[in-house]
Amino acid sequence: MAQPQDITPRGRLTPDQPLGDFTWLRVGGPADWLFQPADEDDLAEFLAALDPQVPVFAMGVGSNLIVRDGGIEGVVIRLGRGFNAIDAGETVTAGAAALDSRVAIAAAAAGRDLTFLRTIPGTIGGAVAMNAGCYGTYTADHLVSVRLVTRAGEIRTVAAGELNLRYRASDIPEGAVVTQATFAPPAGDPDELAARMAAQLAHRDETQPSTRERTAGSTFRNPAGFSSTGRADDTHEMKAWKLIDDAGMRGATLGGAVMNPKHANFLTNTGSASAADLEALGEEVRKRVYDSSGITLEWEIARVGRTRR
Ligand SMILES: Cc1cc2nc3c(=O)[nH]c(=O)nc-3n(C[C@H](O)[C@H](O)[C@H](O)COP(=O)(O)OP(=O)(O)OC[C@H]3O[C@@H](n4cnc5c(N)ncnc54)[C@H](O)[C@@H]3O)c2cc1C
User: Fold this and answer.
1) Ligand 1: centre distance to CA 181 (Å)
2) Rounded to an integer, what distance in angstroms lies between the CA atom of residue 57 and that of residue 74?
3) pTM above 0.85, yes or no
4) CATH fold label, 215-304
Protein backbone atom coordinates (compact mmCIF):
# COMPACT_ATOMS: atom_id res chain seq x y z
CA MET A 1 0.00 0.00 0.00
CA ALA A 2 1.15 3.52 -0.82
CA GLN A 3 2.88 5.97 1.47
CA PRO A 4 1.84 9.64 1.10
CA GLN A 5 4.87 10.48 -1.06
CA ASP A 6 3.83 7.78 -3.55
CA ILE A 7 0.40 9.33 -4.20
CA THR A 8 -0.22 12.22 -6.59
CA PRO A 9 -3.63 13.64 -5.75
CA ARG A 10 -5.15 16.62 -7.56
CA GLY A 11 -5.19 18.59 -4.30
CA ARG A 12 -2.20 19.83 -2.31
CA LEU A 13 -0.03 17.40 -0.37
CA THR A 14 2.69 19.09 1.70
CA PRO A 15 5.34 17.41 3.85
CA ASP A 16 6.31 18.80 7.27
CA GLN A 17 3.68 21.50 7.29
CA PRO A 18 3.66 23.61 10.50
CA LEU A 19 0.12 23.69 11.91
CA GLY A 20 0.30 26.56 14.40
CA ASP A 21 -1.03 29.07 11.89
CA PHE A 22 -4.00 26.79 11.18
CA THR A 23 -5.26 26.86 14.76
CA TRP A 24 -6.86 29.54 16.91
CA LEU A 25 -4.37 29.01 19.73
CA ARG A 26 -1.45 29.45 17.27
CA VAL A 27 0.65 26.65 18.74
CA GLY A 28 1.85 23.24 17.64
CA GLY A 29 4.42 21.43 15.56
CA PRO A 30 4.15 20.24 11.96
CA ALA A 31 1.99 17.59 10.35
CA ASP A 32 4.16 14.87 8.78
CA TRP A 33 1.89 15.51 5.79
CA LEU A 34 -0.89 18.03 5.21
CA PHE A 35 -3.41 17.07 2.54
CA GLN A 36 -5.85 19.64 1.16
CA PRO A 37 -8.01 17.63 -1.25
CA ALA A 38 -9.44 19.23 -4.37
CA ASP A 39 -12.85 17.62 -3.88
CA GLU A 40 -14.57 14.58 -2.38
CA ASP A 41 -13.44 12.16 -5.12
CA ASP A 42 -9.83 13.31 -4.71
CA LEU A 43 -10.11 12.66 -0.96
CA ALA A 44 -11.69 9.23 -1.46
CA GLU A 45 -9.05 8.14 -4.00
CA PHE A 46 -6.23 9.34 -1.74
CA LEU A 47 -7.54 7.48 1.30
CA ALA A 48 -8.21 4.31 -0.71
CA ALA A 49 -4.60 4.31 -1.92
CA LEU A 50 -3.00 5.24 1.43
CA ASP A 51 -1.44 2.49 3.55
CA PRO A 52 -4.03 1.77 6.28
CA GLN A 53 -1.21 1.92 8.88
CA VAL A 54 -0.76 5.68 8.27
CA PRO A 55 -2.80 7.67 10.79
CA VAL A 56 -5.22 10.24 9.40
CA PHE A 57 -6.54 13.24 11.31
CA ALA A 58 -9.24 15.58 9.97
CA MET A 59 -9.18 19.18 11.12
CA GLY A 60 -11.42 22.17 10.50
CA VAL A 61 -10.17 25.67 11.33
CA GLY A 62 -8.63 24.54 14.61
CA SER A 63 -10.94 26.50 16.91
CA ASN A 64 -11.13 23.60 19.35
CA LEU A 65 -7.61 22.20 19.09
CA ILE A 66 -4.30 22.16 20.88
CA VAL A 67 -1.78 20.69 18.44
CA ARG A 68 1.11 19.55 20.60
CA ASP A 69 4.64 20.90 20.03
CA GLY A 70 5.93 17.71 18.32
CA GLY A 71 3.28 17.93 15.60
CA ILE A 72 0.99 15.21 14.21
CA GLU A 73 2.05 11.84 12.88
CA GLY A 74 0.71 10.74 9.50
CA VAL A 75 -1.62 12.79 7.34
CA VAL A 76 -3.64 15.78 8.51
CA ILE A 77 -6.58 16.52 6.23
CA ARG A 78 -7.85 20.06 5.95
CA LEU A 79 -10.78 20.72 3.67
CA GLY A 80 -10.93 23.95 1.70
CA ARG A 81 -12.59 25.53 -1.29
CA GLY A 82 -13.98 22.32 -2.80
CA PHE A 83 -15.98 21.73 0.38
CA ASN A 84 -17.62 25.00 1.32
CA ALA A 85 -20.77 25.21 -0.80
CA ILE A 86 -24.00 26.07 1.02
CA ASP A 87 -27.44 25.22 -0.35
CA ALA A 88 -30.15 26.76 1.85
CA GLY A 89 -33.81 25.99 1.27
CA GLU A 90 -36.30 23.99 3.31
CA THR A 91 -33.33 21.87 4.25
CA VAL A 92 -29.83 23.28 4.47
CA THR A 93 -26.86 21.37 3.05
CA ALA A 94 -23.37 22.67 3.66
CA GLY A 95 -19.89 21.47 2.82
CA ALA A 96 -17.81 20.48 5.84
CA ALA A 97 -15.38 23.38 5.32
CA ALA A 98 -18.16 26.00 5.33
CA LEU A 99 -17.90 28.29 8.33
CA ASP A 100 -20.73 27.92 10.85
CA SER A 101 -21.38 31.68 10.76
CA ARG A 102 -21.82 31.66 6.97
CA VAL A 103 -24.21 28.72 7.17
CA ALA A 104 -26.29 30.48 9.85
CA ILE A 105 -26.50 33.65 7.72
CA ALA A 106 -27.42 31.76 4.52
CA ALA A 107 -30.05 29.71 6.36
CA ALA A 108 -31.59 32.84 7.90
CA ALA A 109 -31.82 34.52 4.50
CA ALA A 110 -33.76 31.46 3.32
CA GLY A 111 -36.06 31.66 6.36
CA ARG A 112 -34.50 28.73 8.25
CA ASP A 113 -33.28 28.92 11.82
CA LEU A 114 -29.70 27.77 12.36
CA THR A 115 -28.97 30.93 14.36
CA PHE A 116 -27.21 28.93 17.09
CA LEU A 117 -24.27 28.50 14.68
CA ARG A 118 -23.76 32.25 14.21
CA THR A 119 -21.24 32.80 17.01
CA ILE A 120 -19.39 29.49 16.79
CA PRO A 121 -16.12 30.13 14.95
CA GLY A 122 -15.62 26.62 13.51
CA THR A 123 -16.58 24.73 10.36
CA ILE A 124 -19.54 22.45 9.74
CA GLY A 125 -17.24 19.39 9.95
CA GLY A 126 -16.07 20.52 13.38
CA ALA A 127 -19.67 21.29 14.42
CA VAL A 128 -20.72 17.72 13.63
CA ALA A 129 -17.67 16.16 15.31
CA MET A 130 -18.10 18.26 18.47
CA ASN A 131 -21.92 18.47 18.39
CA ALA A 132 -21.30 22.20 18.66
CA GLY A 133 -24.00 24.21 20.34
CA CYS A 134 -24.90 27.59 21.71
CA TYR A 135 -27.85 29.22 23.46
CA GLY A 136 -29.47 25.85 24.23
CA THR A 137 -29.43 24.47 20.68
CA TYR A 138 -27.01 21.82 19.43
CA THR A 139 -26.01 20.51 16.02
CA ALA A 140 -27.79 17.25 16.94
CA ASP A 141 -31.13 19.09 17.22
CA HIS A 142 -31.38 19.76 13.46
CA LEU A 143 -28.85 17.46 11.77
CA VAL A 144 -30.41 14.93 9.39
CA SER A 145 -27.39 13.22 7.84
CA VAL A 146 -23.77 13.63 6.85
CA ARG A 147 -21.67 12.50 3.96
CA LEU A 148 -18.28 11.19 4.92
CA VAL A 149 -15.30 9.45 3.41
CA THR A 150 -14.20 6.47 5.49
CA ARG A 151 -10.53 5.79 6.24
CA ALA A 152 -10.70 3.10 3.53
CA GLY A 153 -11.81 5.68 0.98
CA GLU A 154 -15.50 4.79 0.74
CA ILE A 155 -18.02 7.64 0.34
CA ARG A 156 -21.02 7.07 2.62
CA THR A 157 -24.16 8.89 3.73
CA VAL A 158 -24.75 8.37 7.43
CA ALA A 159 -27.96 9.27 9.30
CA ALA A 160 -27.44 11.63 12.23
CA GLY A 161 -28.85 8.97 14.56
CA GLU A 162 -25.90 6.70 13.80
CA LEU A 163 -23.36 9.27 15.00
CA ASN A 164 -24.33 9.12 18.69
CA LEU A 165 -24.12 12.90 19.00
CA ARG A 166 -23.98 13.93 22.64
CA TYR A 167 -22.69 16.79 24.77
CA ARG A 168 -19.64 18.09 22.82
CA ALA A 169 -18.90 14.66 21.33
CA SER A 170 -19.83 12.20 18.57
CA ASP A 171 -18.79 8.79 17.26
CA ILE A 172 -17.49 9.62 13.78
CA PRO A 173 -15.68 6.45 12.65
CA GLU A 174 -11.90 6.50 13.29
CA GLY A 175 -10.04 8.25 10.45
CA ALA A 176 -13.24 9.23 8.60
CA VAL A 177 -13.63 12.73 7.19
CA VAL A 178 -17.03 14.43 7.16
CA THR A 179 -17.47 16.19 3.81
CA GLN A 180 -21.02 17.54 3.99
CA ALA A 181 -23.95 17.90 6.41
CA THR A 182 -27.69 18.29 5.86
CA PHE A 183 -29.94 20.02 8.40
CA ALA A 184 -33.72 20.33 8.69
CA PRO A 185 -34.04 23.57 10.66
CA PRO A 186 -37.32 25.14 11.79
CA ALA A 187 -38.73 27.98 9.71
CA GLY A 188 -38.35 31.58 10.83
CA ASP A 189 -38.80 35.12 9.61
CA PRO A 190 -35.52 36.25 7.96
CA ASP A 191 -35.56 39.67 9.64
CA GLU A 192 -36.22 38.18 13.08
CA LEU A 193 -33.50 35.61 12.60
CA ALA A 194 -31.05 38.35 11.54
CA ALA A 195 -31.96 40.41 14.62
CA ARG A 196 -31.48 37.40 16.89
CA MET A 197 -28.03 36.77 15.44
CA ALA A 198 -27.05 40.42 15.96
CA ALA A 199 -28.13 40.14 19.61
CA GLN A 200 -26.13 36.93 20.03
CA LEU A 201 -22.99 38.57 18.65
CA ALA A 202 -23.43 41.52 21.02
CA HIS A 203 -23.93 39.13 23.96
CA ARG A 204 -20.80 37.18 23.04
CA ASP A 205 -18.74 40.36 22.85
CA GLU A 206 -19.95 41.34 26.32
CA THR A 207 -19.29 38.01 28.02
CA GLN A 208 -16.34 36.43 26.21
CA PRO A 209 -12.78 37.47 25.38
CA SER A 210 -12.38 39.21 22.02
CA THR A 211 -12.27 36.81 19.07
CA ARG A 212 -8.88 38.38 18.29
CA GLU A 213 -7.47 36.66 21.39
CA ARG A 214 -5.83 33.27 20.98
CA THR A 215 -8.27 30.87 22.62
CA ALA A 216 -10.12 27.71 21.70
CA GLY A 217 -13.41 28.65 23.35
CA SER A 218 -14.44 26.67 26.42
CA THR A 219 -11.50 24.65 27.70
CA PHE A 220 -13.48 22.18 29.83
CA ARG A 221 -16.94 20.72 29.45
CA ASN A 222 -19.54 21.92 31.91
CA PRO A 223 -19.93 19.02 34.34
CA ALA A 224 -23.30 17.29 34.06
CA GLY A 225 -23.87 18.77 30.61
CA PHE A 226 -26.06 16.89 28.18
CA SER A 227 -27.41 17.51 24.70
CA SER A 228 -30.69 19.39 24.58
CA THR A 229 -32.80 16.26 24.50
CA GLY A 230 -35.80 17.63 26.35
CA ARG A 231 -35.08 15.22 29.19
CA ALA A 232 -35.50 16.37 32.77
CA ASP A 233 -31.81 15.71 33.39
CA ASP A 234 -30.77 17.95 30.50
CA THR A 235 -29.06 20.51 32.66
CA HIS A 236 -26.00 22.72 32.57
CA GLU A 237 -26.25 24.03 36.10
CA MET A 238 -22.68 23.25 37.05
CA LYS A 239 -20.49 25.65 35.10
CA ALA A 240 -16.81 24.92 34.54
CA TRP A 241 -15.94 28.65 34.79
CA LYS A 242 -17.51 28.83 38.26
CA LEU A 243 -15.55 25.81 39.51
CA ILE A 244 -12.33 27.36 38.09
CA ASP A 245 -13.17 30.67 39.76
CA ASP A 246 -13.90 28.98 43.08
CA ALA A 247 -10.54 27.16 42.87
CA GLY A 248 -8.83 30.57 42.54
CA MET A 249 -7.57 29.85 39.03
CA ARG A 250 -9.09 32.77 37.10
CA GLY A 251 -6.11 34.68 35.72
CA ALA A 252 -3.64 31.88 36.61
CA THR A 253 -0.59 31.78 34.32
CA LEU A 254 2.07 29.30 33.24
CA GLY A 255 4.68 30.42 30.73
CA GLY A 256 2.72 32.27 28.06
CA ALA A 257 -0.60 30.62 28.97
CA VAL A 258 -3.33 32.25 31.07
CA MET A 259 -6.83 31.34 32.26
CA ASN A 260 -8.59 34.35 30.79
CA PRO A 261 -9.51 37.01 33.37
CA LYS A 262 -12.71 37.83 31.41
CA HIS A 263 -13.95 34.23 31.13
CA ALA A 264 -12.18 31.80 33.45
CA ASN A 265 -12.87 28.74 31.25
CA PHE A 266 -11.02 30.25 28.25
CA LEU A 267 -7.43 29.05 28.19
CA THR A 268 -5.53 31.76 26.32
CA ASN A 269 -2.17 32.10 24.58
CA THR A 270 -0.84 35.56 25.47
CA GLY A 271 1.50 35.30 22.47
CA SER A 272 4.47 33.28 23.70
CA ALA A 273 2.82 30.07 24.95
CA SER A 274 3.86 26.65 23.73
CA ALA A 275 1.34 23.83 23.48
CA ALA A 276 3.07 22.34 26.54
CA ASP A 277 2.41 25.55 28.55
CA LEU A 278 -1.26 25.52 27.59
CA GLU A 279 -1.78 21.85 28.35
CA ALA A 280 0.15 22.01 31.63
CA LEU A 281 -1.88 25.00 32.82
CA GLY A 282 -5.08 23.13 31.91
CA GLU A 283 -3.91 20.10 33.89
CA GLU A 284 -3.04 22.31 36.87
CA VAL A 285 -6.56 23.78 36.73
CA ARG A 286 -8.06 20.27 36.70
CA LYS A 287 -6.00 19.36 39.77
CA ARG A 288 -6.91 22.52 41.70
CA VAL A 289 -10.59 22.17 40.84
CA TYR A 290 -10.53 18.56 41.99
CA ASP A 291 -8.80 19.54 45.24
CA SER A 292 -11.29 22.31 45.98
CA SER A 293 -14.55 20.69 44.78
CA GLY A 294 -13.97 16.95 44.26
CA ILE A 295 -15.09 17.38 40.64
CA THR A 296 -12.91 16.19 37.76
CA LEU A 297 -13.12 18.59 34.82
CA GLU A 298 -13.01 16.95 31.38
CA TRP A 299 -11.21 18.66 28.50
CA GLU A 300 -13.50 20.02 25.77
CA ILE A 301 -10.50 21.17 23.68
CA ALA A 302 -9.14 18.27 21.64
CA ARG A 303 -5.40 17.83 22.29
CA VAL A 304 -3.69 16.02 19.47
CA GLY A 305 -0.21 15.03 18.36
CA ARG A 306 3.16 14.30 19.92
CA THR A 307 4.73 16.20 22.81
CA ARG A 308 8.05 16.08 20.94
CA ARG A 309 9.41 14.66 17.73
C1 LIG B 1 -13.87 32.15 20.60
C2 LIG B 1 -14.47 30.75 20.53
C3 LIG B 1 -15.79 30.55 20.87
C4 LIG B 1 -16.36 29.26 20.81
N5 LIG B 1 -17.68 29.10 21.13
C6 LIG B 1 -18.24 27.88 21.02
C7 LIG B 1 -19.64 27.70 21.31
O8 LIG B 1 -20.35 28.61 21.64
N9 LIG B 1 -20.14 26.45 21.19
C10 LIG B 1 -19.37 25.39 20.81
O11 LIG B 1 -19.90 24.27 20.69
N12 LIG B 1 -18.07 25.54 20.53
C13 LIG B 1 -17.47 26.75 20.63
N14 LIG B 1 -16.15 26.89 20.35
C15 LIG B 1 -15.33 25.72 20.01
C16 LIG B 1 -15.23 25.40 18.52
O17 LIG B 1 -15.49 26.53 17.72
C18 LIG B 1 -16.17 24.26 18.12
O19 LIG B 1 -15.86 23.06 18.81
C20 LIG B 1 -16.14 23.99 16.61
O21 LIG B 1 -17.18 23.09 16.30
C22 LIG B 1 -14.81 23.41 16.13
O23 LIG B 1 -14.80 23.46 14.71
P24 LIG B 1 -13.45 23.51 13.88
O25 LIG B 1 -13.81 23.49 12.45
O26 LIG B 1 -12.59 24.60 14.33
O27 LIG B 1 -12.81 22.09 14.30
P28 LIG B 1 -11.32 21.79 14.79
O29 LIG B 1 -11.04 22.56 16.04
O30 LIG B 1 -10.37 21.92 13.69
O31 LIG B 1 -11.47 20.24 15.19
C32 LIG B 1 -12.28 19.89 16.31
C33 LIG B 1 -12.61 18.40 16.23
O34 LIG B 1 -13.45 18.17 15.09
C35 LIG B 1 -12.88 17.19 14.24
N36 LIG B 1 -13.19 17.57 12.85
C37 LIG B 1 -13.13 18.80 12.29
N38 LIG B 1 -13.49 18.77 11.01
C39 LIG B 1 -13.79 17.47 10.72
C40 LIG B 1 -14.22 16.79 9.55
N41 LIG B 1 -14.43 17.43 8.38
N42 LIG B 1 -14.40 15.45 9.63
C43 LIG B 1 -14.20 14.77 10.79
N44 LIG B 1 -13.80 15.37 11.93
C45 LIG B 1 -13.60 16.70 11.90
C46 LIG B 1 -11.39 17.21 14.53
O47 LIG B 1 -10.80 15.96 14.24
C48 LIG B 1 -11.38 17.51 16.03
O49 LIG B 1 -11.58 16.33 16.77
C50 LIG B 1 -15.56 28.17 20.40
C51 LIG B 1 -14.21 28.38 20.04
C52 LIG B 1 -13.67 29.66 20.09
C53 LIG B 1 -12.23 29.87 19.67
Assistant:
1) 15
2) 8
3) yes
4) 3.90.78
